[in-house]
Each structure stands twice: as C-alpha cells, then as structure tokens.
Specification:
Bound molecules: zinc ion
Strand order of the largest sheet: 6-7-8-9-12-13
Distance between the termini: 36 Å
Length: 209
Amino acid sequence: MIHEIFPVGPLQCNCSVIGDEHTREAMVIDPGDEVDNVMAVVKRHGLTVKQIVVTHAHIDHVGGATKLKRLTGAPILLNQNDYALLKMLDVQAAWVGMKSPGAVAIDASLATGDQVRAGSHVAGVLHTPGHTEGSICLYFAPEKKLIAGDTLFAGSIGRTDLPGGSYEKIMRSLHGPVMALPDDTIVVPGHGPLTTIGEERATNPFLSL
Ligand SMILES: [Zn+2]
C-alpha cells in the first residue's frame, strides 16, 4: 500500500493519498487545501485518483475537493448528514479566515457498510457522528489502519461545540465502532500525530469517562 500523509492548509488537516502499488489506482482523503501539493504526491507515485473521500464537511477537510475533482475527474464521497454544513462553506471560511472554495457537490453519500477503494486496498465506512452529524471513519481491515477524521486524536477527541456537534453522539461513536477495533490498529487522525487504538484505550482521558 502506498500511503502518504501530509498536512494541508492553515489548520494543518492531515490529507492522505492511498494507492495500489500494482494498479496505480488511488483515493485521496480530506483534500482540505493546497491541491497542488496533493497532485504532486499523486504524480510522484504515478497514480490515478479514482475517489475523493471526505471524513466530514468542515472546510479544512473539504475545501480543496472541487478543485481536485476538476483535475482528476474523481467523484467526491461524503456522508449525506453533512450536507447542511457543506451548504455553509462561505460561513465556515469566514470563521477560520480562509478564502471560500466555492460550492462542493457530493457525487455519492457514504454510510456504515459502504466501501471505498484504491485498487485492491479496501476500507469499510464507519458512520461516527458527534464531531459533525455526518462524520465518518475509514477502516482498512487487512492493514489495521483507521482514518479517523476529527473523531479521535492522539490524547484527545473531536470538538463538539460547533454546529451539528454532539458530545453524547461522539462518545457513543467512540465507545461503539471505534474502540471495538483491535489495539494494534494504527490511527491517522484529522490533525496531529498518528497513534494506535491500544494507546488511546490506555491513555486518552476522554475514553476513561
Ligand atoms: Zn472538523
């Protein structure tokens, strides 16, 4: 599996480019900004982007999706419960002092049980509301790797005080599908360093509540 993780934009969202080393097919997860950098990684590995997957509709995760779609022709996939947030990207841009990226159109909604793929590398979608109503995580079972969006961070969890956020729901998502994963699962959070499910089970103060 080709997996490049690099921060994009002023809020340093972790963007992932995941590719199949044989078919050269790829998905890009959370192209929040700096699409030129994303495309440079794609080209360096000789990849063809087949899917643009967004963990939730906050501007720092979705801001570059339309530009990336224009460059690659790949569909944008996002859970439909974040449509409301997607319609207020201008307002979100003003909050964080970013330029509005314009409208983002969703090609298909992702829900629990759906799969996304980069060639032979397949991830199951976990709908994990709480940070936003439509937040999802992606679990690559063979590789034991979780792309967590802003649901789980090293030593912390996603904030729930923004529109659509719910502390009760994020705790249900974490104690449900997320912490049910094996301890040696590598977690790629939406911001900051990588961690593992076991490390967070043992040390994350929010998970002992
Ligand atoms: Zn967020």
